[in-house]
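2024-03-11 09:14:02 INFO worker-7 job=invfold-0412 stage=load source=structure_tokens
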């Protein structure tokens, strides 16, 4: 556009001037990238080239308002279309329903659909009445320039739609997806029934509608009803596609009904004539893992390859997970080795983590550390999942000394500065890390059990720094059960007592943090209740 503007004689580049369609493509890109200021700049340029905004331009503006979290402006876009005399289309109304569903405002989305069903034209009035927030009056706001009518007072009659619009299957399906996301399965089914009874064939359920209902029922665990919907699709001449069957397969696997999943995939192939894809087999492999059937997972993996279906990255890592969970890390390593030889897939951090997890589940910490070293050599950095597996393996192997080494690395990557320690990083090449609750809790548990109280306090300080609430109840129970009689021996030598001085100070500090009686309070405490209590 800038190149076109350089020519003084506009007739030279008359055939090169961007039209409304070109501008709409740029506006849509600006919306997708969240560039509101650039959207306004491009919108203002349209008039310079004689390109008038059309209904698609304002449909994109609806999406811009939704992305900018400006729900109160949606009605202003619709009113702007009507006031400028732009011919409205059903897609505009669908965009409005989709926007309200995206905001989680199903009530307003329902009102739009119901008004359309009732043959009402006062959609603008309905949206005005539903607005709980008045538009921002800030003059610097780009929306005041895009929608000058948004600053108008509400003491006027909102415009009416030029004609009646009936909700089509796309609008109904969008509303159903909102119900599904909100867990409103009954409303999803009621909407399907309403669509069946519509006179207009454009409002009848299509395969997307049916698939949405199947997905809602499968998510709710109502697999029998989901199968009934599949049967209805066949009866009404709306063929189910591979996506529909994959949703059903996943539902059966999540309900641990693997036999029914196997039966469905046979029906899918033999009766519907739909060949399973890599997603279908990945679902089945994962289902076998859920019922501890690593042999079944391997069988489906081999069947997939025999059918000429190339395994995906997920296929390999899911099969590795099957062997890792079943305590067969060597077989997981064999799958990993095959994955490295397959030029169609690229080994990622998930695959490496599955290897680490396989050895850590058996407490084979040294083997797991070797995998981590190979991972580093191949350009992958341990992440929270890697460290979590190592921490669990260390706990299982009862090697608290390894936990200290692991914590030192994690602490360094978290950027924690401990008083009295050198600030220079021991792992300068590793990127920063944000630990999660599971990792820190496991490390703290190990340190408390091993009486590494100073390190335990460092870990809980890290938890608090990241907004994670330490489980004081659990740590108190561990301390009382394992360490309540520490440092009580009256027969220890003076030299031994001196050596234990630092540990005792750390223990007292930990007790202080737990809220147990300690030397800071100068009080005594006992395990048994006092007489008379």
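2024-03-11 09:14:09 INFO worker-7 stage=emit residues=533
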């Amino acid at each position: 556009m800038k190149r076109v503007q350089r020519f003084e004689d506009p007739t030279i580049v008359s055939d090169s001037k961007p039209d409304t369609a070109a501008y709409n493509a740029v506006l849509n890109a600006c919306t997708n990238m969240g560039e509101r200021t650039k959207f306004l700049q491009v919108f203002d340029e349209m008039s310079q080239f004689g390109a008038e905004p059309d209904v698609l331009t304002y449909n994109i503006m609806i999406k811009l308002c939704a992305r900018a979290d400006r729900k109160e402006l949606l009605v202003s876009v619709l009113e702007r279309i009507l006031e400028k005399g732009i011919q409205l289309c059903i897609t505009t109304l669908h965009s409005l329903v989709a926007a309200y569903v995206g905001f989680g405002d199903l009530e307003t989305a329902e009102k739009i659909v119901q008004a359309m069903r009732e043959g009402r034209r006062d959609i603008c009035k309905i949206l005005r009445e539903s607005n709980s927030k008045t538009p921002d009056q800030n003059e610097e706001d780009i929306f005041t320039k895009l929608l000058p009518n948004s600053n108008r007072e509400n003491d006027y009659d909102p415009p009416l739609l030029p004609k009646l619009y009936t909700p089509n299957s796309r609008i109904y399906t969008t509303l159903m997806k909102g119900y599904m996301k909100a867990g409103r399965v009954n409303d999803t089914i009621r909407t399907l029934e309403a669509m069946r009874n519509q006179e207009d064939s454009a409002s009848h359920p299509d395969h997307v509608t049916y698939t949405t209902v199947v997905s809602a029922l499968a998510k709710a665990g109502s697999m029998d009803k989901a199968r009934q919907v599949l049967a209805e699709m066949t009866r009404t001449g709306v063929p189910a596609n591979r996506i529909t069957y994959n949703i059903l397969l996943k539902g059966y696997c999540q309900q641990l009904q693997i036999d029914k999943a196997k039966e469905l995939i046979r029906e899918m192939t033999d009766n519907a004539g739909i060949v399973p894809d890599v997603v279908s087999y990945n679902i089945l492999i994962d289902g076998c893992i859920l019922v501890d059937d690593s042999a079944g997972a391997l069988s489906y993996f081999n069947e997939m390859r025999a059918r000429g279906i190339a395994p995906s990255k997920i296929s390999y890592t899911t099969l590795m997970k099957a062997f890792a969970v079943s305590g067969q890390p060597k077989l997981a390593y064999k799958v990993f080795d095959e994955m490295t030889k397959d030029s169609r897939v690229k080994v990622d951090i998930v695959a490496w983590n599955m290897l680490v997890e396989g050895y850590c589940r058996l407490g084979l910490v040294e083997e797991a550390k070797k995998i981590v070293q190979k991972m580093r050599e191949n350009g992958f950095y341990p992440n929270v999942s890697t460290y979590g597996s190592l921490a669990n393996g260390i706990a299982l192997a009862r090697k608290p000394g390894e936990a200290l080494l692991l914590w030192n690395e994690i602490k360094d990557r978290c950027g924690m500065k401990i008083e009295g320690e050198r600030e220079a990083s021991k792992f300068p090449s590793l990127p920063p890390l944000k630990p999660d609750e599971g990792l820190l809790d496991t490390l703290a548990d190990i340190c408390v059990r091993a009486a590494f109280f100073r390190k335990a306090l460092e870990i809980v300080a890290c938890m608090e720094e990241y907004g994670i609430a330490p489980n004081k109840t659990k740590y108190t129970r561990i301390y009382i059960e394992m360490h309540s009689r520490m440092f009580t021996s009256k027969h220890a030598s003076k030299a031994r007592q001196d050596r234990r001085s630092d540990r005792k100070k750390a223990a007292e500090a930990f007790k202080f943090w737990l809220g147990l009686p300690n030397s800071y309070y100068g009080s005594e405490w006992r395990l048994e209740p006092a007489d008379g209590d």
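2024-03-11 09:14:09 INFO worker-7 stage=report msg="The chain has a mean pLDDT of 86."
2024-03-11 09:14:10 INFO worker-7 job finished
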